[in-house]
Amino acid sequence: MPVVLRVGRFRFFFFSNENEEPPHIHVRAGSDEAKYWLDPMELAGNYGFNGRELTQIEELIRFYHTELLEAWHEHFHESD
What we know:
This protein has helices spanning 51-63, 65-75, and strands at 3-7, 10-13, 24-29, 32-38, 41-47. It is α+β, with helices and mostly antiparallel strands and 80 residues long. 30% of the residues lie in helices and 36% in strands. The chain is globular and about 35 Å long. The model has no long low-confidence stretch (mean pLDDT 93).
């Protein structure tokens, strides 16, 4: 489970066995977790975050979008 980014209480990561899915990122803080597709960016699932937190997460994903996609492709040895 490579952790790609930590911002405040949010930890952004993906699972190494998920290379059959499109690029995405999981976000966890405490017991809350969400999953976002990266291209195009879209919420795939939310397990506990409230609306305000999801807005914060989405802003962070937009800000770090390039780095998150690069980390995905690098980990799974894909080219853009």
